[in-house]
Amino acid sequence: LQQPTDVFDLKIACSGECLTRGVKQGVEIDYIVDPWACGDALVDSRDSQSYATVLIGNQCWMRENLNVGTRIAGASNQTDNATLEKYCYSNNDANCTTYGGLYQWNEAMQYTASCNGTGAPPNDACASPVQGICPTGWHIPSHYEFTTLGRAVCTSGSCATDFPYDTETDGWIGTNEGTTLKTVNSSSFSALFGGALVFGTFGQIGTDGLFWSSLEGQNSSNVWNLQLAFANARVSRAVDAKAISVSIRCIRSPVTNTAPALTSVATSPNPIQGGSTLTITPTGQADDDSDALYYYCNETGSATSADTLCTQANTSYATPYSSMTCSYAVSTGNTTRTVYCRTYDGTEYSSEVTATYTVDTTAPTVSDVSSIATDSTATITWTTNEAGSTMVEYGTTTNYGTSTTETDTSTRVTSHSVSLSNLSSCTAYHYRVRSTDSVSNETIGEDNTFTTTGCGGALPAIAYSKEDQINQIMQKLIGLIKQAIKLISEKAGK
User: Fold this and answer.
1) pTM for the full predicted model
2) Which carries the bigger pLDDT value, residue 38 or residue 29?
């Protein structure tokens, strides 16, 4: 009799998600991969039972018969209730341990509808595989999938003819594919001859293995199945009554992917000084599959790892993605720009979202600088062409030496005024004004002077702006010239 293998390779790469070095889109990066691969052990979360698996062609199969559920007596029918039910051959639990359970078709399907494909293109496979009694992520094989299995192990020159995708061809087909499928090793289907329960009678253990498909036969009372026999090198596909109980081999369901989501992004600071670091904060980043996500932004659109501007380009973010961010230094030049951002789950991108920001590299322009002084105080005023902060540097030399506290930083202004106190009387002071806009572009005014009053009872001194001072000097020069001309004229007249 054929027995299941007691030893198989168990490869445990890691638990949860694994960080792997690889190449995506021509760039070597770290990315998250599913650590489970066909050939690893499948652990059924319902009862912690472990099953060997095998990759045949492009299909991943259980390499053991399913053995889940509570054993009931062979004389009773399995029913639609809250309990998964199975039969063990001859009502002996040891047979379930060796050969797996036996299941009526309705119990195997968990009382869902048949996958009624025709078995031939274009309606050749189940649109939605039926999980039935299989573990999560696995399903009851379709008639089409059993045909694909036969073709995968076929070595003759007539595989397409021997294993047609139809529901007309039945009976023993192929050449030696049955021998291949019932060979027990780590790279084979390793079919087990678990027998059957037919209308209350157990039989055929050690000689026949029958496996349910999800496809009903010619009527609603029978179903297609795959059969292998100890004494036959070929494969049989046949239709049997739903009421009999046979084995189940589950096949892994296709791994589907849901594209990630991204609702919007916001730029900060905005406006920003050229050359400074811009931060782009996402909102609504999510992934229904809870995949690790990458966050890409650029200023041309359709950002990828190859052209993203984010310094965090190779960073993967785990759910709930709260730490996701993008930052980079913007170029100079006064302009308004658009950023284009999207997330990536390793397979698909989210929809693209955009935001704008403004680059400001121009400092405020200062004008109308003036000062009014007394013997111990002075008031400095000026205007700027854009809102800015307010500060004055002053002292008795052009090194200044004293600065006022910078004000108007929360709400910047265009009209500025600073009061200086504790000045020395009858003293000449140098000063210059400073204003910084909201993105730290700073302007520093030219040197100006004023003289405090208190020089031996003289009239209060008024200090003027440099422009006013020049005008006053010019007026004095003009007056002196006029006086000189008058004197020359008077002497000439004598």
Assistant:
1) 0.54
2) 38
